[in-house]
What we know:
This is Hopanoid biosynthesis associated radical SAM protein HpnJ. By secondary structure, this protein is α/β, with parallel strands linked by helices. It has helices spanning about 40-45, 55-60, 60-70, 85-95, 110, 115-120, 135-140, 180-185, 215-225, 230-245, 265-275, 290-300, 315-320, 325-340, 355-370, 385-395, 420-435, 440-450, 455-475; strands at about 5-10, 15-20, 25-30, 50-55, 75-80, 100-105, 125-130, 150-155, 160, 200-205, 205, 230, 250-255, 280-285, 300-310, 340-350, 370-375.
Amino acid sequence: MTMxxxxxxxxxxxxxxxxxxxxxxxxxxxxxxxxxxxxxxxxAALVEGSRxxxxxxxxxxxxxxxxxxxxxxxxxxxxxTPSFASDVKVAQMLKDANPxxxxxxxxxxxxxxPEESLLKGGPVDFVARNEFDFTIKEIAEGRPFAEVDGxxxxxxxGEIVHNRDRAIIENMDSLPFVTEVYKRDLKIEDYFIGYLMxxxxxxxxxxxxxxxxTFCLWPQTVGxxxxxxxxxxxxxxEIRLAKQYFPQVKEFFFDDDTFxxxxxxxxxxxxxxxxxxxxxxxxxKANVPRKTLxxxxxxxxxxxxxxxxxxxxxxxxxxxxxxxxxxxxEFTKNCHELGIKIHGTFILGLPGETRETIQETIKxxxxxxxxxxxxxLAAPYPGTFLHxxxxxxxxxxxxxxxxxxxxxxxxxPLHYPHLSHEEIFKGVEEFYRKFYxxxxxxxxxxxxxxxxxxxxxxxxREGVEFFQFLKDRRAA
Length: 476
């Protein structure tokens, strides 16, 4: 079987725009950040002779991409709600350069809006719905579109056809290592996250999340709510290979929606990593028992990325977080005592938000005092329950539906009768200022810088970016 000459592409976009397939919020960040394009790298690992171009972190323009596609048969583009209009323009440029090219799009946007995406995406030949790894492999093998499960496509008459759904992957060990694609096509130093050591590598050890958070993008669109996992041995084998390929890596990050959903497995993976002597971090819910935290810490865990979202219990109920504020407090106290750093994420503008709850959440964050934090604006992505709520209740208007402004910076898309877009938007800056501009937090950051010349350089650069971010927001 002759594989189609296939390019996997994260297209150029706004300067500094993190739209990669591993990004949960496709936007320009407060501090320049880029997640790995793992959702593209996985099918690329299945397609022999393919290439992956991740244009934004590589700061690559269209010229080298257009040169590449002149010798391609197939391009698979990752897209998102905020970047879709721009991505369609890129697709047209690719088609103009090579009219015989077949172009497919993947990502949460097209997974939940396949017909609308094809109607608005003239140069796009097909979109892949839901989990798409083997879908793309079959297309790259040259199978007729009519025979491929999981796609919506345009036939020769221009009609849109929806094939039957593809079964989800149950045996996650059947997928090849994405590390091979990272080594072949990416420069890992291009990927930077403010709270992770640099350079870092990010992979998934499973897909899906049993939690039902109403705002969360991937479980409601692509991954599902059943946590399907790779075996600890399979994960350890990839980390062993990554250590060999990238001896400069300082930290491995497991980007599963909630790595701690399966506690015995998390402990088993930790023990394998302990044998390898690596430093690692992961996403976690703020309810991990102290005994498990002790096992993880003893085997190389450095940091947990924790979605607190809000300090108000009613809002947590409203978004189906399944979390008690007091449980989160106890968990955070345990992490502090054990020396596990926390990057806490919070969201302003969720259903039930008021001026008072914003202040309550800021107070909560300063009290539990994670090492670093990120404050996002509630983003009602199509396909999520939050989007359905917002549409039905009139919380979302068309002028804010794209989720970002003309510079790629996140907007406040939701508003309520008692709380305006502007009040929610301004709450982000207030949150950052009240958290970071405290004497103890400033002292902690300075102490960190004094002890490490590398950290000194890094924090100074981040500080410049952060203050520019605040300046740009005030000008918006």
